[in-house]
Amino acid sequence: MKKIAAVLAAAGLVLLAACHKPEPTTENVANAMESDLVNNAAAMQAEADANANAAAANAMNSASATYSASMNATDAANSQ
Fold it and tell me: Which residues of the chain have pLDDT under 70?
């Protein structure tokens, strides 16, 4: 009976030691938050750059199409 109690006690201690995780320190939490903020800022900057590039490309395409249409209208008016 003593052997069973000793084995159960040892198993309980091993289980307790395996399950115990140290509390994260404030510094570790702050570092993790800083890392997340930096990563999120970089992702938002990349998204903003992509959107700005797309908007600029759309504006150039629109201006080019408008110019082409006006030149076609001018050519058509001159040929009459």
Answer: 1, 18, 20-23
**Three-state DSSP class for 62?**
helix
For the chain, what is the largest distance between any 2 Cα atoms, rounded to a whole number of angstroms? 114
9: tokens are 């006690």
Separation between Cα atoms, residue 62 and residue 11, nearest integer Å: 74
- pTM to 2 decimal places: 0.48
For 25, phi then psi, to 5°, come to -80, 160
**C-alpha distance from residue 79 to each of 12, 28, 30, 39 (Å):** 98, 76, 73, 60
What whole-number distance in Å separates Cα of residue 6 and Cα of residue 11?
Answer: 8
Q: Which two tokens stand for residue 67?
A: 């110019």
